[in-house]
């Protein structure tokens, strides 16, 4: 094993496994060299595809996957899973298995047929990326952690299905022994990977029913890739959901690998960053537009004589009141503004293109909300002390009303008006002012 090679660990979780395909895409883009890949349940199936190293085939399989390509549906048992077990904890799920152990279970013949088309056992055995999987021998009540060389010739797909044998599926039998999903022993087999002498490990983990073993070895570098938003249910093979999960896996992995930055968005600050560099330098400078400068200083509660240091300090003070505290101020301002404007999240944005996305979304929202000022009750709400009605307004309403208000308000009315602004709203307003400043110059 090369010192630069990583071991990849893949968790089980049914349809959530689409996330792991996105991680694989990121691994390839970031040129990670894999020496082994070990998975449990659907993670074992994905591990086989990765060990085979046919990326296009794997992506095509997942992109076109439906539940009918996994199961011959038995309506009664499917409903039991969806309505009861999938909503309970692991013990309830395990106990439910005991009640149906000797019943027919869900027929996974379609999955076996698809694996026969997808998986080349010969290619995997010849691959420089070693394959491993986890299952449980129910006959002897013992876990089986097996590398490819321990799996008998011609039985790879049998053992892949054994690793994926959820209780609601038909019993998986090999040589007279019944096998159970590997998640009943270890759904995230990091320890097994360490036993293969890897001290650099990438672990893909998401919430799923199963057991999790504590990592015994401390002197191991582990990069963990977690999902940043919900992936859906274990048997949710909706095409749109699968595509979203593939994209999410790709983006969350790119962030874990340090290829993109951001807390909420995925922003590449290393390339196409000319505008971003100018934004960083300009931030805190007094605005050239007198009206916008006065409005900005009002938001920051600063005098007209405030210099760049004072403005930056006030911006940082507001930032500390958000979930973006202790992060890069320029990047945080852009993310807060993007979220307030509703800019699409699941994209890999070169940072300068994110400025374009912000402006495009702002212009769209302004065009859709031009009639805001036709309702006098809206402006009245902003000047009514202790009014909670403004809470129903979205950011663009705040923005339009703020721009329409005169700069010579009486101090008490200005204080009432400004009290309605959250730190996120104020920071987004100021960010837009600075973006407009960039456009002018």
UniProtKB/TrEMBL annotation:
Entry-linked InterPro entries: Acyl_Trfase/lysoPLipase, NTE, PNPLA_dom
Active-site residues (renumbered): 41 (nucleophile), 181 (proton acceptor)
Residue positions of motif GXSXG: 39-43
UniProtKB keywords: Hydrolase, Lipid degradation, Lipid metabolism
Matching Pfam families: Patatin (PF01734)
UniProt motif DGA/G: location: 181-183
PROSITE patterns from the UniProt entry: PNPLA
Superkingdom of this protein's organism: Bacteria
Annotated protein name in UniProt: Patatin-like phospholipase family protein
């Amino acid at each position: 094993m090369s010192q630069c090679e990583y071991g990849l660990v893949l968790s089980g979780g049914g349809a959530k496994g689409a996330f792991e395909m996105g991680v694989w895409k990121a691994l390839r883009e970031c040129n990670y060299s894999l020496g082994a890949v070990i998975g449990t349940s659907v993670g074992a199936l994905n591990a086989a595809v990765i060990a085979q190293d046919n990326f296009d085939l794997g992506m095509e399989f997942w992109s076109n996957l439906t539940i009918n390509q996994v199961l011959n549906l038995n309506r009664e048992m499917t409903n039991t899973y969806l309505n009861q077990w999938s909503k309970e904890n692991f013990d309830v799920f395990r106990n439910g298995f005991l009640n149906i152990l000797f019943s027919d279970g869900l027929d996974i013949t379609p999955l076996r047929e698809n694996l026969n088309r997808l998986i080349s056992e010969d290619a995997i055995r010849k691959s420089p990326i070693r394959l491993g999987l986890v299952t449980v021998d129910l006959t002897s009540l013992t876990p089986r952690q097996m590398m490819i060389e321990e799996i008998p010739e011609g039985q790879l797909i049998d053992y892949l299905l054994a690793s994926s044998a959820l209780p609601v599926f038909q019993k998986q039998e090999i040589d007279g022994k019944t096998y159970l999903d590997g998640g009943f022993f270890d759904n995230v087999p990091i320890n097994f990977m360490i036993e293969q002498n890897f001290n650099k490990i990438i672990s893909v983990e998401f919430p799923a029913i199963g057991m999790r073993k504590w990592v015994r070895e401390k002197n191991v570098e582990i990069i963990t890739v977690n999902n940043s938003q919900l992936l859906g249910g274990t048997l949710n093979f909706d095409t749109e959901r699968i595509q979203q999960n593939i994209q999410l896996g790709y983006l969350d992995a790119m962030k874990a690998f340090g290829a993109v930055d951001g807390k909420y968005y995925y922003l590449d600050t290393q390339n196409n960053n000319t505008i971003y560099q100018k934004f960083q330098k300009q931030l805190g400078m007094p605005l050239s537009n007198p009206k916008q400068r006065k409005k900005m200083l009002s938001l920051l509660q600063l005098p007209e004589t405030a210099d760049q240091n004072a403005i930056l300090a006030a911006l940082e003070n507001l930032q500390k009141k958000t979930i973006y505290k202790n992060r890069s101020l320029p990047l945080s301002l852009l993310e807060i503004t993007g979220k307030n404007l509703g800019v699409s999240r699941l994209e890999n944005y070169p940072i300068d293109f994110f400025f374009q996305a912000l402006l495009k979304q702002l212009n769209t929202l302004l065009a859709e909300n031009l009639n805001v000022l036709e309702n006098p009750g809206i402006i009245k709400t902003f000047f009514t002390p202790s009014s909670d009605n403004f809470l129903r307004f979205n950011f663009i309403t705040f923005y339009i009303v703020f721009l329409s208000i005169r700069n010579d308000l009486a101090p008490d009315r200005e204080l009432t008006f400004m009290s309605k602004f959250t730190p996120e709203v104020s920071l987004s307003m100021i960010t837009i002012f600075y973006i407009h400043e960039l456009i002018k110059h």
